[in-house]
Amino acid sequence: MPSVMECNHYINVNCCTLLQECRDECGSGRQLGVEGKCEPCPRGTYRTMGVQAACQACPTGRTTHRPGAATVEECTLPVCQPGTFLNGTQNSCIPCKKGTYQPDPQQTTCIACPPNTSTKGAAAVCHISLLVKHNENVNKGWSKQLEESST
After folding, report:
1. What is the pTM of this model?
2. CATH number for the domain including 136?
3. Predicted confidence band at 17 (pLDDT cuts at 50, 70, 90)?
4. Helix residue ranges, H only, the chain
């Protein structure tokens, strides 16, 4: 996008139809928002001033540490799927341990199951359909039905 100064000299279809439409280009890691103000690129995108007109998605399977990335080189983190969490120290996705779950992608922790419940195994996505009661008084027929419905 041309700068405001360029727009003052060349008000035409290639630049702006009105001088009021001219905006300074947003800096790296930022793009023009719907209200005409520069906003940080969302997490998982980047933008280099003078190269991209808008924030670009990171390569498939990669994301950024935070919003406002300026280059593709900042797309260093893996995209963690449900059932895993991002270990920021190791920059890797770790499966949730038995007794924890994570239904959402790109999270930094797993969620503990409610008291007296667990997941069927590691890397659980949802505790509701995978709950296994540890209480010895649970009806064995209910346990078998629950186990069959979670496979």
Report:
1. 0.59
2. 2.10.50
3. low
4. 4-9, 140-149
